[in-house]
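Let's do one together. I've listed all components of the complex below, 658 residues spread over two lines.
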Amino acid sequence: MKQRLNAFALTFRLPIIIWQAAFFIVPLVFVVAMSFFVVRNFQMVETFEFASWERMLSRNFVWSAYQYTMVMATASAVLASLLAFPAAWYLAFRCSAQTRQVVILLLIIPFFTSYLVRTFSWYTILAESGVLNGAFGLVGLGPYRMLNTAFGTLTGYLTLVMPLVLILQTVTMANIDDRLIQAARNLGCSPLRTIWAVVLPAGKTGFVIAALFAFILSFGDFVAPYYLGGSKPPTLPILIIDTTKAGMQWPRAAVVAVIMMLTLFTIAFAAIMFAYKKRTSR
Amino acid sequence: MATNGKLIQSKRTFLKTSMASVALSAPFVNRAWAQTVELTMLGWYGTAEPDMVGAFEEANNVKFVPKYYAGGDNMLAALAQNPPGTFDIIHTDAEYAKILTAQDLVLELDPNDYPMDDLLHDDFKAFSGHWGAGGELYSLITRFGHLGVSYNKETLTAEEAATYDVFWDPRLTGKVGHFDWHLPTLGQMSLLMGNASPFDIDSAAWDAVQEKTLSLKPQVGGYFDFGGTFAGLKNGEMLAMVGIGDWVTGILERDGAPVSSVVPKEGGIQWTESYSIAKTSEKVDMALKYLAYTMSPEGQVKTAQMLGYPGHAVTKAGRAMLNEVDPTEAARSKQVDGDPQDPITLINEGRIKYRDIPVQQSLEDWNDFWSEYKNA
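Okay, and this is what the predicted structure of the assembly comes out as:
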């Protein structure tokens, strides 16, 4: 039987559709179109030229920034996945459901404060005169340079993505049938072998999605590489800001943005294909 | 049936509540709008904060709405991306004032409304880009400051910091910071290379400036915006900064940080800020009143003391009042007759060059090099 259109229900469903169309698809199309505009006398001229593409693709510093951003975002995704795993394991298999709920709530709390504020708080911890170096000094070590380095950038990235990765991994492992793990151990698997042969395959989708989120958030993050990495060297989001600072070159910034989006679409597509790929029978 | 009844009731309640809310709130909204004039200011951070505009707001029943930017290009972008009439007052770096005039974005001002004869230096009376070809005034100079070598006083002495060469000092390896904007840094490198007009250089001189700048790379600890610059100097991560001056270290000095700025022997770069009124403003009378206020002695004192970042007064009366009401700040910022670093004395000695946009290269060329330098 054909279902009647419920106008009242639509009133509450349409906004999200309109929102996505208005604030994601339309701007996306506009950014692509803008990459073909040109700037003359500080004013953007709507045209269809490849000038911005030619200029940006021929600059070495664009490719250097691209390479650095890819390496750092990958490192962030891998590190976050590895560092979160033991804690997620404990939360999923070792602690009570009540403890797990409390810890997950605590993991959400960092999102209550601005990411920028959390990033700036690292200044007092990582500075040469900061808390960490103070502690190292007590045992005769340091001071070590941590701010304005790749380490600083990674610290910022992990601040952003770790809670999310940990929550996703915990939920993933909590949904794995505990009896599979017990069976593996009973059949003589070592803990590492159990993780490799049972846990990772069973939770593959969740682990890949968690790592993918970490990659996407790090890849597009401006705050950590700028404030904790000292923009040294710049990542692609910093390059976008740099490009708009001189001569209002929004079309060139749009080229960088399109390159970033294409990269993220490709990686997200590949990751999701891998995550949902069925295991072939031997 | 009961569920349907509840649903119908909730639909009615929803619609009734929505309509009643709109109807009830309308008179209050109208009344609030009628009471206060809103002036929207496009400016650098701090220019529309209470310490600057609070007294004027109170006296004239005005509410300032700030829209802040960092860098002249961002200002032009804000003007291009907002509908006409969005901004009333435009606070701009002087080198961008000529672009506002060229693009016919600002109103002509009457010089007789302002104390032009009281300006501290003759250059200020006919400042580049502020006047039209026919002698019309479009932008009003309001404050200025000098960029030189900013340094940590526990590492360097003022004498050691009195040359741009100090940035290559081995004690500063990894501790030299850049304010992340190409114009001031490359202008300073151009001065170091002996260019009398640091922003008007031929291709050979431009190549030399790039080469010299690249040689500084091993010393560099990072590239920072407002927040990062303040934090880097304050926590000692950066021991010297290129491209800034008292507008940053002045704030930190007020807080007791061991930092200072000096105009080195090769000369300094002057940043100059001006006010214009947007041609599309519908509140021109009030905007004009504010411009007159900023040029009054009281307004000039506020501009020198501005919490966002300090600057120098441009009028004699403003400077005199600053010395009277806040001698500590006047002395700290060297706005005292007889001080060897008195900003007016430095201009008279020919040690200051006014910041400009590149003349023989494009802004994009300078910015492209800046990106290459950051990636080097």
